[in-house]
């Protein structure tokens, strides 16, 4: 898969029910889902959160290819986390496998499986938030939810703007990296042969032009914002005012029901 196929941070326009939800609703639903995910500890509770996420993915109509494409950059981290949980989770009784000073117990296998599922589900639910919410609406939603912090002099607008810009520029930097790699391949660079260390060393020449491009884009963005008289959030108005609709209240109630259901399942050891 090429770098340009990575969908991390992209927005997919659409008219599905998830796209039409208020951005504040989607942020709160993401938080509720993450809470339910971390409260899940057994097979039944994990099955529930997986089923809920599958329904959300189907409703978003984003497509499985986009989800899998976004997972590509974190595969190594997920596998490493699973391996660490596999070998370093203590268990009762005799180990299933004994390798040097490392032991694999049944508890370690379950811990590795649950940890990998948790990370993948966590990433997928956050992907759905960015896939179905435009950067502008995401910024407005974050600023609105964090607005109480303005009473303690927290720069809420600036924080929300920085988070939105960071998400927006992830696809841009990925595209820029792909262009630089293509240009260097045309000049004879080799990024695919050799062992892992050699491949990592081959990527070092990419860093200088990539950093130069990133700083240039940041400078151009700053100049463009100054030319449009941007001076922070004070006195700014919005073209679209955020208002909760009936579907937003229903979605939030369902999110609370999910968390309560997971807690109840935990009480029964499920």
Automatic annotation (TrEMBL):
Membrane found in the keyword field: yes
Chief location bin: membrane
GO MF, any single term: transmembrane transporter activity
Gene Ontology, cellular component aspect: plasma membrane
Keywords: Cell membrane, Membrane, Transmembrane, Transmembrane helix, Transport
Localization, UniProt: Cell membrane
InterPro entries the record matches: ABC/ECF_trnsptr_transmembrane, ECF_transporter_component, EcfT
Transmembrane segments: 31-59, 71-88, 108-129, 246-268
Membrane topology category: Multi-pass membrane protein
Subunit structure: Forms a stable energy-coupling factor (ECF) transporter complex composed of 2 membrane-embedded substrate-binding proteins (S component), 2 ATP-binding proteins (A component) and 2 transmembrane proteins (T component).
Family, similarity comment: Belongs to the energy-coupling factor EcfT family.
Free-text function comment from the UniProt entry: Transmembrane (T) component of an energy-coupling factor (ECF) ABC-transporter complex. Unlike classic ABC transporters this ECF transporter provides the energy necessary to transport a number of different substrates.
Protein name, UniProt field: Energy-coupling factor transporter transmembrane protein EcfT
Lineage of the species this protein comes from: Bacteria, Bacillati, Bacillota, Clostridia, Eubacteriales
